[in-house]
Specification:
alpha/beta; Rossmann fold; globular
């Protein structure tokens, strides 16, 4: 088991408790949108209990990391039941145990809202993504609507304390800072849920930009 900093360990404890008592997953159109766009060698950061697994297309080679060992055990069993080609391991989103340029697709599903350093997590995802590969995200974010944003600001201290859930983050800024090309950007649920598909430039594209 990797060693984690105190805040990450607190989050791991929260998700160990939640995973042990979580209700069965319902159909999620956001996860369907997310996983249907994955292909090749796929890394999912924060697989949880394996909620995304039924949505992946056949033929993907899934690798996943998960902070909660309780959730990881459930996800491993679910992958077996679904016959999914998956290699799952314990890990930290801010220090991915993979070499550079290793995956065709990297997926975040409602994860960046809980990672202590979401900027670093995005940078790590880009590091392990192959040139031309795709970064896919569905996240809870800072709403574009003033009233909803005010409610998020009001409830964020409680959400952070109980669920380690940041309600006002904007991962799009981190994705753009890493130099990725935004292919799809959508907002749903009064601007609270954001979908992003972004591509890492090819080496020749980087050379032309310089």
């Amino acid at each position: 088991m990797p060693e984690f900093d105190p805040e990450t360990e607190r989050i791991r404890s929260i998700y160990n408790r939640r995973s042990a008592t979580a209700a069965p997953s319902r159909h999620d159109k956001n996860l369907e949108w997310l996983c249907s766009r994955a292909d090749g060698d796929v890394l999912e950061v924060g697989v949880g209990r394996g909620r995304t697994f039924p949505y992946y297309p056949q033929g993907v080679r899934l690798h996943g990391i998960e902070l909660s060992d309780v959730a990881l055990g459930i996800a491993q069993q679910r992958a077996l039941e679904l016959g999914l080609d998956a290699t799952l391991r314990s890990g930290d989103a801010t220090s991915l145990p993979f070499p550079d340029d290793h995956f065709d697709t990297v997926v975040f599903a409602y994860v960046l809202c809980t990672v202590p350093d979401d900027r670093r997590a995005v940078a790590e995802a880009v590091r392990v993504l192959r040139p031309g590969g795709r970064l896919l995200l569905v996240e809870h974010v800072r709403s574009t609507y003033l009233v909803m944003r005010s409610l998020e600001r009001l409830f964020e201290p409680l959400a952070m304390r109980r669920w380690a859930d940041h309600l006002l983050r904007e991962p799009l800024n981190h994705v753009m800072a890493e130099g990725l090309t935004i292919e799809t950007l959508e907002r749903h649920w009064l601007g609270v849920v954001e979908r992003i598909a972004a591509r890492k430039p090819q080496d020749n594209e980087l050379a032309e930009a310089v």
